[in-house]
């Protein structure tokens, strides 16, 4: 189902989370569940994966995760502020050790000069740290979404390694 690279990273995340007894949740927009699917593709993931919030619409970001509608109005769905609130809301609602969130422009349309196709914001919050990133991925919609999944997995792994 997933490319070998994604499977390899997901397995490492699950094995590391198990070893460190850390739990994980995701809050996804542009990947619409691909990240949680990659994690739960790994046998034994149920020991560490708590939940996955798929908040594709702004209304779901507000209703499910508590993102402030003013944040969405002022900064937009694809912003550091929004993914920060998404990750914080997911972590608080699920009570996990690590929450990762992402929101971006997967294309092929919807991009702008400020937020081109392939631009994705990420936030990863753990009990120890918060990190943000906003790379621009290249390729078609499928490739952009898969690159975003891999990037989110790498961010989770970085947080796990601090435990």
Number of separate structural domains: 1
Proportion of residues in β-strands: 15-25%
N-end to C-end Cα span: 30 Å
CATH topology: Maf protein
| Order of strands, widest sheet | 2-1-3-4-5
Pattern of helices and strands: HEHEHHHEEEH
Largest sheet properties: 5 strands, mixed
The share of residues in helices is 40-55%
**Tally of extended strands?**
5
Number of helices: 6
Classification by helices and strands: alpha/beta
Instruction: Give the full name of the CATH homologous superfamily.
Output: CinA-like
Q: Tell me, what's the shape?
A: globular
Kindly list the characteristics that best describe this protein:
5-stranded mixed beta sheet; 6 helices; 45% helix; globular
Explain this structure:
The protein has 163 residues and is an alpha/beta fold. The chain has one domain: CinA-like (Maf protein, Alpha-Beta Complex). The chain is built from six helices and five strands, in the order H-E-H-E-H-H-H-E-E-E-H. The protein has helices at residues 4-20, 34-40, 58-65, 69-75, 80-94, 141-160; strands spanning 24-28, 49-54, 98-104, 120-126, 130-133. Strands 2-1-3-4-5 form a five-stranded mixed β-sheet, with helices on both faces. The mean pLDDT is 97.
